[in-house]
Amino acid sequence: MTNFLTDYLVASLRLAVPLAFAALGGLLSERSGVLNIALEGMLLSGAFVSAAGAFFTGNSWIGILLAIFIGGLVGILHAYLCITLRVDQLVSGLAINLTAAGLTSFWARILFNSKQAQSLPGINIIGIPGLKNIPIIGDILFNEDPLVYLLFLLIPLLTYILFRTSIGLSLRAVGEYPRAADTAGISVKLVRYVAVTLSGCLAGLGGAYLALVHVKFFVEDMSAGKGFIALAALIFGRWHPVSTFFACLLFGATEALQLRIQAFNLNIPYQFLVMLPYLIALFALVGLAGKSTPPAALGIPYIPESRDR
């Protein structure tokens, strides 16, 4: 029983990791006032580029760096469309998602065959001596790969930056009252560009985890809606790093549960089990966990006063 519980909790955490990276990226973007529906496309782009980079170089870390880079580029594209051109932010995100799905499918068929796609180098687990031997907790928290440890560091770091530094204050001010932030001398455009670019980098990192750690191969549309679940976790977590991470854990635990129920060969159509994570995400979106108040300027383009006249 203990082994089953430990395996289930470890699986829940690992399934939550790509969601958490994407959700934290979305948090930065949306705290600055830019709606980021493009997380799905960023995740998928990061997964594909990391897989291609790791396969052709034989080095998974090069694949991870490439995923961060391409995620940042997609973030810059989204920022350019939304901030500079003032394209509708929902339309921009959906366009990026569709483009990413098409391009990754096209290039995957050219670069990979079925055997190549399943021969990617992975990332080794690094156990912390002594701590990894603690029952249950040791396997979950102290016997993981470096990207999980990075996520554990990133959550308190983002929380501190957002709520305890002038950088975080500027970011939140731009997302809540951009006119007041501009009057105070804060560059709304610069803050939003940086936030959306970093959002893409984190989502790309989540895609790299998905391809190189979670499944260790690339298939078309492997993100499978995880970017949208990350958005749901962001809303569920009320745009706070800690609660957003726990929301991702909830979705990860739900997905791990449906996988284990399928393994028991119960007389339940597997389609109903596959629906579980998305049903939980839907419940979060309709607000069953309580009313979530987004940043006041979320989704609203900012036009400087000089251009209003």
What can you tell me about this protein's structure?
There is one protein chain. Strands 1-2 form a two-stranded antiparallel ribbon. By secondary structure, it is mostly helical. Helix 1 (2-31) crosses helix 2 (39-57) and helix 1 packs across helix 10 (226-236). It is globular. It contains 13 helices and two strands. Helix content is 69%, strand content 1%.
Compact summary:
With about 300 residues, this protein is mainly α. Helices cover about 70% and strands about 0% of the residues.
Uncertain parts:
none
Total count of helical runs of at least 4 residues: 13
The geometry reads as globular
H and E string: HHHHEHEHHHHHHHH
Structural class computed from helices and strand pairing: mainly alpha
Strand order of the largest sheet: 1-2
β-strand percent reads under 5%
Assembly classification: single chain
Taking Cα atoms only, what radius of gyration do you get, to the nearest Å? Answer: 20 Å
Helix content: 55-70%
* Biggest pleated-sheet summary: 2 strands, antiparallel
Say how many strands there are.
Answer: 2
Distance between the termini: 69 Å
The residue-averaged pLDDT reads 87
